Amino acid sequence: MRTVLNVIWLIFSGLWMALGYAIAGLVCFLLVITAPWGIACFRIAAYALWPFGQSVVRRPGAGVPSAVGNVIWLLVAGIWITLGHIAAGIAFFVTIIGIPFGVAHFKMIPVSLMPLGSEIVPSGRAYYPWESR
């Protein structure tokens, strides 16, 4: 089922989103000093292509540089990208068939808001610090 959802997602939303993130990543690399955000954009682009079966978790040792970088990202691009995910998610929720894809858009909001210090892992390997092992 996950593969079917990913293929449908790829056609209706994933390809366009991944392309947008990849273009943003290229712009970040062209500006050289924004290369860490470029790396994050490419990581998110891969996640945007195939989101079902993957989860975003925070890296526990990300530290202060990631926090500062996330604040800068939030002010420059994060808010606008998140608004796009919210609008697309609401649009997908209009139809019953689109609900899983709307959920996928909402699942991408945390990583689009604060990409530095996040890691994309297979859902079965996701570890959340507030859960006991």
From TrEMBL:
Location of the Inner membrane component domain: 4-54, 68-117
Residue spans crossing the bilayer: 7-24, 30-50, 62-81, 87-106
Pfam families xref list: YccF
Keyword Protein biosynthesis: no
Keyword Transmembrane helix: yes
Keyword terms of this UniProt record: Membrane, Transmembrane, Transmembrane helix
InterPro entries, per the entry: Inner_membrane_protein (IPR052937), UCP028777 (IPR031308), YccF (IPR005185)
Protein name: YccF domain-containing protein
Organism: Streptomyces sodiiphilus
